[in-house]
């Protein structure tokens, strides 16, 4: 009976660890500016005194005026402007 309890505890800890890992991987965002530039952030930008504050891929804190931001959206290849290969149609 004690073995089952230990196994259940291990499974619960494993599930918890996996959920933290998955949640941590989805933190990137793309800021599209009014001139069309795209900035990839490691966390969701926060609005502070009419400026968005965010961390870049190097962990450096940056700011951008809110009036220069067109949209902020979760990271995807399409949002980041990464070209995707289209299938060859024959």
Task: Walk me through this protein's architecture.
The protein contains two helices and six strands, in the order αββββββα. It is an alpha+beta fold and 90 residues long. The strands form two sheets. The chain has a three-stranded antiparallel β-sheet with strand order 2-1-6, with no helix packed on it. The protein has a three-stranded antiparallel β-sheet with strand order 3-4-5, with no helix packed on it. A hairpin with a 5-residue loop joins β4 and β5 (61-65).
Question: How is this fold's topology laid out?
Answer:
Blueprint: H1 2-25, E1 29-33, E2 38-41, E3 46-48, E4 51-55, E5 61-65, E6 69-74, H2 77-80
Which features does this protein show?
90 residues, alpha+beta, SH3 type barrels, three-stranded antiparallel sheet, 2 helices, 6 strands, 31% helix, elongated
């Amino acid at each position: 009976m004690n073995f089952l309890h230990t196994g259940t505890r291990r499974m619960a800890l494993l599930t918890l660890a996996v959920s933290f890992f998955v949640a941590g991987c989805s933190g990137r965002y793309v800021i599209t500016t009014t001139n069309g530039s795209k900035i990839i952030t490691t966390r969701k930008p926060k609005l502070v005194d009419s400026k968005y504050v965010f961390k870049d891929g190097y962990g450096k804190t940056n700011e951008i005026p809110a009036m220069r931001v067109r949209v902020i959206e979760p990271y995807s290849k399409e949002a980041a402007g990464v070209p995707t290969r289209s299938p060859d149609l024959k």
